UniProtKB/TrEMBL annotation:
Its main location: cytoplasm. HAMAP family: DnaA_bact. This is Chromosomal replication initiator protein DnaA. PROSITE patterns: DNAA (PS01008).
Length: 453
């Protein structure tokens, strides 16, 4: 099966997703594959189910069925950044005069073990950069050289660079990988000049197979460093060695960068990373929670994702804060707890609610599928939830009556009618009043009694 799969996807994909998969045998006619976490489980369902079924079919299965099961927690918790890096997964080649085990260990030491492709959530904000990094990982020195990734702070530039490094060091344990910040490069250079060790300096940087340089914008205004980097760049480039650069802005906007360097930075591929969309932020939080074995409800993750929108490092920090807060106060996770935990750092932002959120909450409150509420049913059991949903959307979001109408496949006068109907019943009909009150508190993140206790 794996042979079939491998022929149909890229090597990077294969190593990222299929290498860690375990065969758990056949249960009730379905082949069960063990995957690392529920993120991987979802990914497999979405992206590889058909391929795996085809693979089984190619082996003669009439009615191929594949399912995925999350394996029991592995040892390597991914967020413990300070742990020693994992041991190399295969023995180093010693007799060929290749790099020593120590070299390899050195390579890995500089790479953050958490920053792998597998742990990188792909969304519309970063999919081009991700694809480019995958391309480079697959054909270093050939696909795009240099690869220039730019974007604001905390959006995953370093993560992607390291992912290429990990990937290469796993597939080609003999390759030399150097990750350096522009600041360290500059300091190394200053030390080398001072200690008269320029030859060593040049050997070090010009003999690598993959050079990753972070925050290249800091070359601006440093003439001697630019000069040295120019020669390093040329030496590597001419030998088809891969270079990846990160920066907070594109080459054209780096002031006082020599023209010859700027043009070299533009030779390969320039790609950017933008701030993540809401769904990507939720997915990142979910993955983080899982890696840390934290069982935290989806609606709490959603609240965090609405609070922190621009920087993924801060997003991760916010999650940790909520976790710490709830454990220190010995209260279970809830939206209220999260709102409270974050209220000191983030300017209290009104929790922004979307129409779909309201619909989902109302649906779950009345215990019926959202589509039924939006559907055409006219019985009271459906009409009341529909009116309540429209009423709450009007109250909690900025959407206009026609927009709400469109969301429900109705015109604005129907919505107006629904709103006045609910308004009329508030205070009179106990059930409706209680439902509206409860749902409103829930969506504003005020549903927490634990905190008051
Ligand atoms: N798409 C993603 N999926 C999962 N985690 C991500 C993603 N993007 C960023 N992160 C996480 O966000 C944090 C910040 O990312 P990183 O350090 O790579 O940002 P950066 O763009 O290099 O920032 P800086 O400019 O400050 O160096 C890291 O912990 C990283 O793992």
């Amino acid at each position: 099966m794996l042979g079939y799969v491998r022929k149909n996807i890229s090597e990077v994909e294969y190593h990222t997703w299929f290498a860690p998969v375990k065969n758990l045998g056949v249960q009730e006619g379905s082949l069960v594959l063990g995957v690392r976490n529920s993120f991987a489980q979802e990914w497999f369902r979405k992206h590889y189910l058909e391929l795996l079924e085809d693979a089984l079919r190619s082996l003669g299965a009439q009615n191929p069925q594949v399912s995925f099961q999350v394996l029991p927690a592995a040892q390597d918790t991914l967020l413990s950044l300070n742990d020693p890096p994992p041991a190399p997964s295969r023995p180093p080649s010693s007799s060929t005069g290749g790099p020593s085990a120590q070299d390899q260990a050195e390579n890995r030491k500089r790479l953050n073990p958490k920053y792998t492709f597998e742990n990188f959530v792909v969304g519309p904000n970063n999919n081009l950069a991700h694809a480019a990094a995958m391309g480079v990982a697959e054909s270093p020195g050939k696909a795009y050289n240099p690869l220039f990734i730019y974007g604001d702070v905390g959006l995953g530039k370093t993560h992607l660079m390291h992912a290429v490094g990990h990937y290469m060091s796993e597939r080609f344990p003999d390759k030399r990988i150097e990750y350096v910040s522009t600041e360290s490069f500059t300091n190394d250079l200053i030390n080398a000049i001072r200690d008269d060790k320029m030859t060593q300096f040049r050997n070090r940087y010009r003999s690598v197979d993959l050079l990753l340089v972070d925050d290249i914008q800091f070359l601006a205004g440093k003439e001697r460093t630019q000069e040295e980097f120019f020669h390093t760049f040329n030496a590597l480039y001419e030998n088809h060695k891969q270079i990846i650069l990160s920066s907070d802005r594109p080459p054209k906007d780096i002031q006082t960068l020599e023209g010859r360097l700027r043009s070299r930075f533009e030779w390969g591929l320039i790609t950017d990373i933008q701030s993540p969309e809401y769904e990507t932020r939720v997915a990142i939080l979910k993955m983080n929670a899982e890696h840390n074995r934290i069982d935290i409800p989806q609606d709490v993750l959603e609240l965090i994702a609405r609070q922190v929108t621009k920087n993924i490092r801060e997003l991760e920090g916010a999650l940790m804060r909520v976790v710490a807060f709830s454990s220190l106060n010995n209260v279970p996770f809830s939206r209220g707890v999260a709102a409270k935990a974050l209220s000191n750092i983030f300017a209290p932002r009104e929790v922004k609610v979307e129409m779909m959120d309201v619909l989902r909450q109302v649906a779950s409150h009345f215990n019926m599928p959202p589509d039924v509420i939006r559907g055409s049913g006219r019985v009271r059991e459906v009409v009341v939830p529909r009116q309540v949903a429209q009423y709450l959307i009007r109250e909690l979001t900025d959407h206009s009556l026609p927009e709400i109408g469109q969301f429900f496949g109705r015109d604005h006068s129907t919505v107006m009618h629904a709103i006045s109907k609910v308004t009329e019943q508030l205070g009179k009909d106990q059930e409706i009043t209680a439902s509206v009150e409860l749902l409103r508190r829930k969506m504003q993140g005020l549903d927490d009694e634990d905190l008051d206790a």
